[in-house]
Structures are given as structure tokens and as C-alpha cells.
Design a protein that fits this description.
By secondary structure, this protein is an alpha/beta fold. It has a single domain, classed as Rossmann fold, CATH 3.40.50. About 40% of the residues lie in helices and about 20% in strands. It has seven helices and ten strands. The strands form three sheets. Strands 7-6-5-8-9-10 form a six-stranded mixed β-sheet. The protein has a two-stranded antiparallel sheet with strand order 1-4. Strand 9, helix 5 and strand 10 form a beta-alpha-beta unit. Helix 1 packs across helix 6.
Length: about 210
């Protein structure tokens, strides 16, 4: 689910404009998993652009209130969701915590960092959803800490079926500010890709492992 079509197109435009999303169907990127991909997404780049950063922060906040109501606390997922989450918490005037990928091996051994109380309502902030694996590990940690996870908001999703299934299985609703199809629409409209490249990009999304084999 996305916030709304007009805002989703604007977010997509900003991500392409600042090159947080790079498209290269002819010279694909290689992900850590070994998958060849015509797209590379690094939403941390948006933090370097004040106007884009502000638009995303406000869009996050609007989406949270519209879909989940006002929570008690905002939680960012390490690492990409920490800076975005802190900005959103500031926008809403709420406490902020963040979730490590695993518990610390020293000190207090925390996985959830920051002050919170059991039973508080929390909305989780991510920058990107691929399969949803890291996001759902964070949600599990928050639930184990006896927080009430209302849902998750991210900037962008590839829209993989696996992600939809994983979030459904975890009974955690999520919203993104924009998505893969909307981004392709904006890229084509802006002449950043050709119709032939559009077809290739759509084929990749349907079956990344087999694309270009």
C-alpha cells in the first residue's frame, strides 16, 4: 500500500533525481546475494538533500497518522531506518528508539536501544523493503520487548511477492511512500528509460533470479 498516487510519484521523482535509485538495465548491478539487478537503491542518499529529506519526513509522518494513528514511540531499523526514524520522531514530537540487527555482545546486551515502556504503541521506520527479512526481525525484537507494533512505514519497496507473504505471515501491516511500479512510471515519463528498458525492468521484478540468464 502507498500513501497516495500523487505523493508516490513525487517521492519517486525525488529518489531518481538525487540518484538514491539508479537504473542500469544494460549494465546491471550485483547484489550481495549474487542476484543481477537493473536497479540499485540507497535511500541514505536522500539525507544529503534538505528539501528531499524534509518532504520524506513529512510524508512519513502523514502516512503514520493516516494508517496507524498516533503511536507512543517511533522505532528505526538499523541501519537505514535510524536517521529517517529520528527525523520522523522529531516531526511528530515523539520518543525515538532503534533496533539493532542483533543483541549487543557486551554492556547491557540490548537489541532495542532507547527508553520505552512495555505496552507502548510503536510504528517502525525502514528505508527500503526487499524481502522484508531484516524489518521483520526488528519487529520480532520489539514484540519480544513487549511493545505493541502497529505497523511499518518505508520509503520504497520492490513489491516482491515474498515480502507481501512475509509481512502477512507476521501479521504486520506496512505502507510505503512509493514503490517499484510507480518509480518505473516516473522514470519513463522523465525519459530516464526507454520502453524497451521498461520491459526489461518489469521482467526483472517478476523473476529476479532468472533475469538475464
Amino acid at each position: 500500500m502507498i500513501l497516495n498516487e500523487d505523493k508516490a510519484l513525487k517521492v519517486a521523482e525525488f529518489l531518481l533525481q538525487c540518484k538514491a535509485i539508479k537504473l542500469s538495465p544494460l549494465k546491471p548491478f550485483t547484489w550481495a546475494s549474487g542476484i543481477k539487478s537493473p536497479i540499485y537503491c540507497d535511500n541514505r542518499v536522500t539525507l544529503s538533500y534538505p528539501s528531499i529529506r524534509t518532504f520524506l519526513r513529512q510524508s512519513y509522518a502523514e502516512s503514520i497518522v493516516e494508517h496507524f494513528g498516533r503511536p507512543d514511540v517511533i522505532a528505526g531499523v538499523a541501519t537505514g531506518g535510524i536517521a529517517q526514524g529520528a527525523l520522523v520522531a522529531q516531526e511528530l514530537g515523539l520518543p525515538f528508539i532503534y533496533v539493532r540487527s542483533g543483541a549487543k555482545a557486551h554492556g547491557m546486551g540490548n537489541q532495542v536501544e532507547g527508553y520505552f515502556e512495555e505496552g507502548q504503541k510503536v510504528v517502525v521506520i525502514e528505508d527500503l523493503i526487499s524481502t522484508g527479512g531484516s524489518s521483520l526481525k526488528a519487529i520480532e525484537a520489539l514484540r519480544e520487548a513487549k511493545l505493541d507494533v502497529k505497523g511499518l512505514v518505508a520509503i520504497f519497496t520492490y513489491g516482491f511477492d515474498m515480502a507481501h507473504k512475509n509481512f502477512a505471515d507476521a501479521e504486520c501491516p506496512y505502507v510505503t511512500l512509493t514503490n517499484y511500479e510507480t518509480m518505473l512510471e516516473k522514470a519513463l515519463e522523465s525519459n530516464l528509460i526507454s520502453s524497451h528498458e521498461l520491459s526489461s525492468l518489469q521482467e526483472w521484478r517478476m523473476n529476479p533470479k532468472e533475469w538475464k540468464k
